[in-house]
UniProtKB/TrEMBL annotation:
It comes from Pseudobutyrivibrio xylanivorans. It is a multi-pass membrane protein. Keywords: Cell membrane, Membrane, Transmembrane, Transmembrane helix, Transport. The chain crosses the membrane at residues 15-36, 48-66, 72-94, 106-129, 135-158. InterPro entries: MFS, MFS_trans_sf, MFS_Transporters. Pfam families: MFS_1. Gene3D superfamilies: MFS general substrate transporter like domains. The keyword Coiled coil does not apply. It is found in: Cell membrane. This is MFS transporter. One of its GO terms (cellular component) is plasma membrane.
C-alpha cells in the first residue's frame, strides 16, 4: 500500500498514507468492541474465514483504487474489519483446542509462521511492484490471500469434524 500510494501521489503520498493508517487505528479502537459483541455467537472458524475474505476483498479494492483517494479509505476499512475478526478469534481458538502444556509452543509457532508468510508475501509483492508495477503486486497479494481463504474455509469444515463437541448447542 505505501508503494502504491507513493506511486499514485508522489508529492502528497506520505500524508495520504499517514491519514489512511490513522483511519486504520481509529477503526480498530472504535470497532473492535462492536464487532466482538456483534459476532459473539458466530463460530470462531467462521469469524476467521469472514475476516480473511474481507482482507482478500480489501486487496482487490486497493487494486481497483489506484489513484483514487476515497477508494484507499474504503479498502483500509475492509481490511481493518477483516483484521479485527481474525485477531479476536485466534487466541480463543487455540486456547479451546490446544492443551495448556503446549499452548506456549503452539502460539510461538503460529506467530512465527504468520510473520514468515507475511514477510515472504510483502517481499515478493515489493519485488513485483518494482519489476512489473502495482497491478501485478496486488494480484500476487490477492492470490496469496485467496490461498488463505481456501485454507480458512477448509478449517471451518475440518474443525467442526475434529472438534464436534465444541459445536454442540446447549438445549
Amino acid at each position: 500500500m505505501p508503494l502504491d500510494i507513493a506511486k499514485a501521489f508522489p508529492v502528497k503520498g506520505s500524508v495520504i498514507y499517514g491519514t489512511i493508517t490513522s483511519v486504520n487505528c481509529f477503526l480498530v479502537v472504535l470497532f473492535t468492541p462492536i464487532i466482538t459483541m456483534f459476532f459473539e455467537k458466530v463460530d470462531l472458524t467462521k469469524k476467521f474465514a469472514l475476516g480473511v475474505i474481507l482482507q482478500a476483498i480489501s486487496f482487490a479494492a486497493f487494486l481497483m483504487s489506484f489513484g483514487i483517494i476515497g477508494g484507499y479509505y474504503i479498502s483500509i476499512a475492509l481490511f481493518t474489519f477483516g483484521e479485527i475478526l481474525t485477531t479476536i478469534m485466534m487466541g480463543a481458538f487455540l486456547a479451546e483446542r490446544v492443551p495448556e502444556s503446549h499452548r506456549g509452543r503452539i502460539f510461538g509457532v503460529t506467530n512465527f509462521a504468520g510473520a514468515f508468510m507475511q514477510g515472504i508475501t510483502q517481499f515478493c509483492s515489493g519485488r513485483m511492484f518494482d519489476a512489473f508495477g502495482p497491478s501485478y503486486a496486488w494480484a500476487f497479494s490477492i492470490a496469496m490471500t485467496m490461498v488463505a481463504v481456501i485454507a480458512a474455509l477448509m478449517l471451518v469444515y475440518l474443525d467442526k469434524k475434529e472438534f464436534s463437541q465444541l459445536y454442540v448447542q446447549a438445549d
